[in-house]
Design a protein that fits this description.
This protein has 374 residues and is an alpha/beta fold. It is built from 14 helices and 15 strands. It has two domains: 127 residues, Rossmann fold; 191 residues, Dihydrodipicolinate Reductase, domain 2 (2-Layer Sandwich). A nine-stranded mixed beta sheet has the order 14-13-12-11-7-10-9-8-15. Strands 3-2-1-4-5-6 form a six-stranded parallel beta sheet.
């Protein structure tokens, strides 16, 4: 082959390859396979944020929405331009006809068990808003259904996606502050009525059957989840709790103030859950043998060790897919990724055991020993 012929042939091959590459753009090549999700329930206020920020994502496709209250669906459909064809009045109809791979739950906590059991029968994965259940019995039933149905059940907490919490965990577990001796978690706000949550959300948040309790479950779950994670899945030996209803005219049926004390062999955790804070807060303190770390909102933390002054640290960014609830859920279902410990069913079974014991302790005035009887 002459040099001139070789050059011509090489040019032709280059043009063919370039044309093929042009037909498949980089964005097309890297476009993720979307997760087909069904939305179950519209009575949890967090669903508004889901529609606002996620309805046009390329990696998530909404294939159906089940909600018994058609007027509630119509309200969200108008607000966010949802296709009326997405609507199903009955959960079973949505699961059978829309064929979701997974569902996102925005129901009352009481309804979590029924939805998980229905999805498990069809091999459909589930992610719900915290907490896992209204009782430890329901939580165990859901775990059994998930095992039989071979599905993932994930629990979404806002605090799972805080950089500061993960930075605190790393400092506590790499020896920077020594072995953990005390954890203090603060969560809550002025109260659901005071911050004007949606009426359908307020209705079940203040119902002890549908919510499990008041602030005890609504915000105590954050601390139970974080403490279990920080203690590497260790179950506390005892749970002691005190609840109050400081505003009985506003919350006559449930507590609005709760303090839970968890005793471990060599550590203690104090969870302060409240609808009486003067402002919103989700922060924690972790004390070790040699120092402490205190989270400041989502991204910062304060650190001090012996013989050192306190310093403020900017937490590093979280790594995908563990930086966003839907990204993680999609990767768990489609790519086989391992669930983050904070969202995992295993961690949340212990968190539910803690909450159930705390409710009993508050009602009886006695400390409850763990594990609870099955």
């Amino acid at each position: 082959m002459t040099p001139r012929l070789f050059a011509a042939l090489a040019a032709t091959i280059f043009l063919l390859v370039s044309k093929s590459a042009a037909q498949t753009s980089p964005s097309q090549q890297s476009k993720p396979v979307p997760l087909r999700v069904g939305v179950v329930g519209l009575v949890h206020g967090h669903v508004e944020g889901f529609f606002q920020h996620n309805r046009h994502r390329a990696d998530v496709q909404i294939v159906g929405i089940s909600e018994a209250n058609e007027q509630l669906f119509a309200r969200y459909a108008k607000q966010f331009g949802l296709d009326p064809k997405l609507y199903y009045a009955r959960l079973d109809d949505m699961l059978q006809q829309a064929h979701p791979q997974a569902v996102l739950m925005y129901t009352s906590t009481y309804d979590h068990r029924a939805v998980v059991e229905a999805c498990a029968q069809r091999g459909i994965h589930v992610m719900m808003e915290k907490p896992l259940a209204v009782s430890y019995a329901d939580a165990r039933a859901m775990a059994e259904a998930a095992q039989h149905g071979k599905i993932h059940v994930l629990v979404n907490y806002e605090t799972t996606w805080y950089r500061s919490n993960h930075a605190a965990y790393e400092l506590a577990h790499d020896g920077a502050i020594g072995d953990i001796r005390k954890i203090v978690v603060h969560d809550g706000h002025r109260g659901p009525k005071e911050i004007s949550v949606q009426p359908e959300f307020l209705a079940w948040l203040t119902d002890p059957k549908l919510n499990g309790a008041g602030a005890l479950f609504d915000f105590g779950c954050y601390g139970a989840d974080l403490a279990t994670w920080l203690m590497s899945g260790q179950r506390p030996e005892t749970v002691t709790a005190v609840t109050q209803t400081i505003k009985p005219d506003v919350y006559p049926k449930v507590d609005d103030e709760a303090v839970i004390v968890l005793k471990y062999p060599k550590a203690v955790a104090v969870i302060q859950a409240s609808w009486n804070w003067p402002f919103d807060r989700k922060d924690m303190e972790v004390y070790g043998q040699k120092g402490y770390v205190i989270t400041v909102a989502r991204d910062d933390l304060r650190v001090r060790r012996r013989a050192e002054e306190e310093r403020t640290v900017k937490a590093k960014a979280l790594v995908s897919p563990y930086d966003d609830s839907l990204t993680e859920f999609r990767c768990v279902v489609i790519d086989g990724a391992k669930p983050d410990d904070l969202t995992s069913l295993e961690t949340n079974l212990i968190a539910m055991e803690i909450l159930d014991a705390a409710r009993t302790s508050a009602a009886t005035g006695k400390t409850v020993n763990l594990p609870l009887e099955k």
